[in-house]
Amino acid sequence: MSVGPSDGTPGGGGRTNLFSPVSVDRISEVIVEQVRLLIREGKLVPGDRLPSERSLCEQFGVSRVTVREALRVLEASGLVEIRVGARGGAFVTQPSSERVGKGLAELMTLASMTAGDVTEARMVFELGILPLVVERATEEDIADLRVLVEQGLNELENGSYTMAMSAAFHVRVASAAHNPAIEMLVRTFHGPMLMSLQQAHIAAPLMGPRGAHEHFELVEAIEQRDIDRARTIMTRHLQRTADRLAEYANPTLEDPGNEE
């Protein structure tokens, strides 16, 4: 297809408004994309220092205001760190899983998903990574999980157990897979997971004791490297949450139980 004048002259095909004007306000975005591309291509790596603001202005042919706006965007994205002082400047960094996860979690929270959708995804994800957790969990992982279980049981006795504690336990289980991609994904999922657990708690206010004890059983199975038992416990654990949410969404269904 040839692209020509937009007034119907030969070569234009009678097309109008094929292109949109480029706003001067968008120039900073072009700079951001160039830096991102250089990072993806490995031409900029963590620790590299970007040229000075003055040099960037000259290279891009833009004002210092535009360069500063681009640097603010890159900093907010976790791609650069702005340091002050004699040895300051803009340095390329590697986004942490927490920063990436927070951004993705916000997008997921804004999306039109239900607590049931989240729980269904949890069943696929958490059951899927369980073999890795059982195989790779270290003594430190087991110790950390036991601390979380003990804290949960103590809070149950005090009547102050929260769904945030349950979510924290599941995040720590996933980190025992020792895969940075999995850890990033589960941290991303923390917000939606907490939302679904809180909604399940509304559906069954007495939830807690059963689930907290299942956390204890799961840690035992992981420590014993018993994948079949761990899978059975996790399936029962998550399925009850799914049933509770289904009851909440459709009150005409038979009550699946009032404890986690």
From TrEMBL:
Entries under PROSITE patterns matching the protein: HTH_GNTR
Residues in the signal sequence: none
Entry GO MF terms: DNA binding; DNA-binding transcription factor activity
Keywords: DNA-binding, Transcription, Transcription regulation
Coiled-coil residue spans: none
Pfam families assigned: FCD (PF07729), GntR (PF00392)
Annotated ranges, domain HTH gntR-type: 25-95
InterPro entries: GntR_C (IPR011711), TF_FadR/GntR_C (IPR008920), Tscrpt_reg_HTH_GntR (IPR000524), WH-like_DNA-bd_sf (IPR036388), WH_DNA-bd_sf (IPR036390)
Keyword Transcription assigned: yes
CDD domains with a match to the protein in the record: WHTH_GntR
Protein name: GntR family transcriptional regulator
Species the sequence originates in: Planotetraspora thailandica
